[in-house]
Amino acid sequence: MQRLAGLVAAFALAGCAANPDARPPEDLGVVEAPEAAPVETASAAMLMPGPDIETMPFVGFDAAPALEAFKRSCDKILFRDDTSGLTRRVDWQAPCGAAVNWSGDAGEFFRSQFETVIVGDGTAFATGYYEPEILGSRTRQPGYEVPVYALPDDLERAWPADVPEDERTGRPPLGRYNEAGEFVRYFERSEIVAGALDGKVPVIAWAADPVEFFFLQIQGSGLLRLPDGDVMRIGYAGQNGREYVAIGRPMREQGLIGEGTEYPTSMQGLMGWLRANPERADEILNLNKSWIFFRNLDTDGPLGSLEVPVYARDSVAVDPKFVPYGAPVWLDMEADVADGLWIAQDTGGAIRGANRFDTFWGNGADAREIAGAMSSSGKAYLLLPKGTLARLKQ
Predict the structure, then answer these.
(1) pTM value?
(2) Strand ranges across the sheet with 156-157
């Protein structure tokens, strides 16, 4: 989420938009989110029927865009396995088939095709993210000196020689082969900033402000406002495999932001300090060793991890081990602006466990403000194809 407004706002950095390295406000030490569920998937969690679907207050202005978002998801969810263990590909055939030619009330579509399910105790926590816009250029020129790198050809997954065979489990780490043919960790942020990739990796654009670009990297996607006024959309292509470090915590620990300083514990405060202390900005930013690589997008919205465009107020990031991609979710939050239907189309590095959600608000000043202020508890009801719960309890 990345957001920039209000008390919590400033640290809404976990914006997802397909960046699995993205982090939310609580990961910067601003908000305490509920701990992730101790179970590994939703199928191992306590599942209960939710409210009767016929009683759900679906309304057109909310249900209609949710239906369109669900349609966009069908091309993906019909051909991928559900890691939550709740649904099978065949379960989605009926609702996806009905959605294609649905011409009636959108709320009635959801009532006719789904049932509500509570995962765990249903206690939800939601943050928000948005699509940032920063100044950029397709070509390097004065005032645009920060490279926006494409995915390097030499970024690979392999096991370093010093990792014993019996410890080589799961996915191999990301890295590169050096001149001696040894597999080593990939360059970290400080090395990339110092020019480790100069002339070796394609540059798709040049950003004007390294601080703004740093936060866009955490978000994982964004817009570049070009000198001629046009906009270029860039999206997550990959990551260098190095550690993500939330810079807010060490800045507070060093007394740079927060109580007793002129810079509040917020993203605004953090950015304010970085701009006021340019001689130390690289030192602080480089505490985060992670670097995000980008690709040029020709879509009308940023791509979520489901590989479909996400749109304001329709798309929500989830933990796919607890919420099937493409599933509708009904949120009833203390922050009323987040109430209603959302479609699970994205995820993020800190979106973990049952009933943890990151709501997407689009781009622009309003989106930035709403997403930045979003940090709310409430209830969540997962909508699954009818008959799913009965099958799971057999």
Answers:
(1) 0.80
(2) 156-157, 174-177, 183-185
